[in-house]
Design goal:
88 residues; alpha+beta; 18% strand
Length: 88
């Protein structure tokens, strides 16, 4: 998959919304600015969700959304630990 077909963000809330609505996250990595990036496949559905998020038009079920956020935090923690271990 080339770079144009990927959607890369560092906004954990937006990443959580995308996952909540069924968009699969394909990777998580650390960028040059020491930020965690969430990588998704680009699609029309994803673009519509991002637009809805930006306009405040989306609603989520709070408990399920909280679970998604918790899982993303686990991924971030694991990712940071793996990166730090590799740098030692």
């Amino acid at each position: 998959m080339n770079e144009q077909e990927k959607f890369v963000i560092s906004d954990m809330a937006l990443a959580s919304v995308l996952i909540f609505f069924g968009e699969p996250m394909i990777d998580v990595k650390k960028n040059d600015k020491d930020e965690i990036e969430f990588i998704f496949n680009q699609s029309l559905d994803l673009q519509n969700l991002v637009k809805g998020y930006s306009l405040g038009e989306l609603s989520v079920e709070p408990r399920r959304f909280a679970l998604v956020m918790k899982e993303i935090k686990k991924i971030i923690f694991t990712q940071k630990n793996n990166i730090e271990r590799r740098e030692i």
